[in-house]
Amino acid sequence: MPNVTIYTSAWCPYCIRAKDLLEKKGVAYDEVKVDGKPDVRAEMSRKAGRTSVPQIWIDEHHVGGCDDLYALDRAGRLDPLLRA
Question: What is the CATH number of the domain that holds 33?
Answer without folding.
Answer: 3.40.30.10
